[in-house]
Write a structure and sequence with these properties.
mainly alpha; Serum Albumin, Chain A, Domain 1; about 0% strand; DNA-binding; Homeodomain-like_sf; TRF-LIKE 8; SANT/Myb; Myb_dom
Length: about 550
DNA sequence: TTTAGGG
DNA sequence: CCCTAAA
């Protein structure tokens, strides 16, 4: 699609929104009336019916997905609404809170949850339709939240024709409309980030209210460690290099930066090259792009380099490749709090994974459901302060590569923010800062988990981590055998069952934290097992110890 | 692929 | 938690 010049866009947008507001004035104002406008806008955008530009992407997806996918979607949407609702109550109080006030532990939990979403995605293989939705959301967000002039506004003209809840069962209309929107939108780092920031709050809130309270006594004592803090700081730092680059107008720089980037995380975030996008933008080339993605995945370090950005608009929606990119987007959306089933999130992963009901709730994925007001509002709440909250509020919206087999290949996820040409560098800089960094996806070990681990070791001894994983942690996908082993290593150190070679204060402190958070009984067992199943198979004396079993 | 070990 | 070497 031809790119609109700025002027054009600017003039069109306001109109559109003005009309939108009129149409939906009723949306539920029980909450912060001032926010209503934006809320309405968002809502409307989400419901945006198709326009003349039917994105091929959307159509394809719709056709392919069929019923199975629908049910999956339903689960999410429903869950999200539900969660949001619960969430909203607490938002106010947190909005003004500074980043430092956030409970890091909670944040940690939230971050972990992002990963889980990824898992879910993997299981269900969501595709295009969701992407579109997500993109939509992003657009909506951009428009309603950010105070800079929206672009491509002209493409949103058809807002007058409302199509309620483009559910999965609905005609291709809804989906098409969404994809249309997304095409116009093209994730800009700003919008994305804006969302991101906002949702972090929401989630944090949710987590703190629910998760923590429901924890076991032993876990209550688990406090954020200095590690957490450090990580957060790191995030900020990591983001910096990218920020400046992203703000630059040419994608080239970004690409270079990505190349030069030392952090793997940054690499993953890398934006799609122009050429790549262009190719993908061609409706016919869907297969081509798939192939391409595979190729790029294969070529570890050889990433496509491109430059032009004009095609990005078209490419955006289409460019999303099946898996990786989508998963990322999906997660993004999730982290943005848009469609995320918060109630699911707050649950232990194991529960979620095992409970099929959440993916087949029987509800339709409808953006305009009764729950919507909540959604919108929640979004709304993402106070600007959030974007100012700094590093600690940051959270990754991207999940790490699937556990277990970390793919060396570069995920095509860099599609995230392909639009570089943006003029509003300021906004972008500020916000992109947050989106571009990733936090280590760490999941706190809970006491029950530790106990399970210990049981497993008692049964199998050390060295059979896969077995332990399978038997004791079959329901928790996020714990890999390696994780188990690492945890055991840590436990040994913490329990003093192992000679501690690190005499650094820092390390000791950390260990102390661990000890504090776990019941002493646990450590007793650890010590027992340590003598029974020596971990380093070489005893302190240097003698090899045969594994029992 | 899994384990072990180092970072 | 991540990565790599070795088995």
């Amino acid at each position: 699609m031809p790119r609109m010049d700025k002027l054009d866009r600017e003039t069109h947008f306001p109109k559109k929104f003005a009309s939108m507001k009129c149409q939906r004035v009723k949306v539920d104002d029980s909450f912060a009336p001032a926010l209503e406008d934006e809320a309405v806008e968002v809502q409307h955008l989400l419901a945006e019916p198709k326009t003349d530009h039917v994105s091929v992407d959307g159509v394809l997806c719709l056709g392919k997905e069929k019923s199975s996918k629908c049910s999956e979607t339903n689960g999410f949407s429903f869950g999200f609404n539900d969660g949001m609702r619960r969430n909203i109550g607490g938002l106010h109080s947190h909005i003004t809170q500074g980043p430092d006030d956030l409970d890091l532990g909670v944040l940690d939990g939230f971050l972990d949850e992002v990963d889980e979403v990824d898992d879910i995605h993997a299981a269900n293989d969501f595709s295009g339709a969701y992407e579109d939705f997500i993109l939509d959301v992003e657009l909506a967000q951009k428009v309603s939240y950010l105070d800079y002039t929206p672009r491509d506004g002209s493409r949103l003209r058809n807002s007058s024709s409302e199509s309620q809840s483009p559910g999965c069962s609905g005609s291709s209309n809804g989906a098409a409309g969404m994809s249309e929107l997304s095409t116009a939108t093209i994730p800009e780092s700003e919008s994305k980030n804006g969302w991101h920031n906002k949702t972090v709050k929401c989630k944090l809130r949710r987590s703190s209210g629910d998760k923590w309270n429901s924890q076991e006594p032993g876990e209550d004592s688990v406090c954020p460690t200095s590690d957490d803090i450090e990580d957060l700081d790191e995030l900020d730092d990591d983001a910096k290099p990218l920020i400046s680059l992203v703000s630059g107008k040419n994608a080239k720089k970004v690409v270079q930066a990505a190349k030069a980037g030392t952090s793997a995380r940054q690499k993953r975030l890398r934006k799609p090259t122009k050429r790549y996008i262009e190719e993908l933008s061609d409706p016919k080339s869907k297969q081509v792009m798939e192939r391409k993605s595979d190729l790029s995945a294969t070529l570890k370090d050889k990433r496509p380099k491109i430059r032009s950005h004009d095609e990005l608009h078209c490419g955006g929606a289409l460019a999303r490749t099946p898996k990786e990119s989508f998963s990322e987007n999906f997660n993004q959306a999730i982290s943005k709090g848009n469609d995320e089933p918060l109630h699911l999130r707050s649950k232990p992963v194991s529960e979620r994974r095992t409970n099929p009901s959440f993916i087949s709730k029987g509800r339709c994925w409808s953006v305009t459901s009764q729950n919507e007001p909540c959604q919108v509002r929640a979004v709304k709440f993402a106070p600007k302060e959030l974007s100012l909250t700094g590093p600690s509020a940051q959270a990754p919206f991207e999940s790490r590569p699937r556990r277990g087999r970390p793919k060396k290949s570069l995920p095509l996820s860099f599609l995230e923010s392909e639009d570089d040409e943006s003029e509003d560098d300021c906004v972008k800089k500020r916000i992109s800062k947050k989106s571009n960094d990733r936090r280590k996806h760490q999941r706190m070990w809970t006491t029950p988990e530790v106990m399970k681990l210990i049981d497993g070791i008692a049964q199998y001894g050390t060295g059979r981590w896969t077995d332990i994983k399978k038997l004791m942690f079959s329901s928790t996908a996020y714990r890999t055998p390696i994780d188990l082993r690492d945890k055991w290593r840590n436990l040994l150190r913490a329990s003093g069952a192992q000679k501690r070679k690190s005499n650094k204060k820092e390390d000791k402190e950390k260990l102390k934290d661990v000890v504090r958070s776990l019941p002493s009984s646990v450590f007793r067992r650890v010590r027992e097992l340590a003598s029974l199943h020596p971990y380093p198979r070489f005893s302190p004396g240097g003698r090899y110890i045969r594994r029992k079993n």
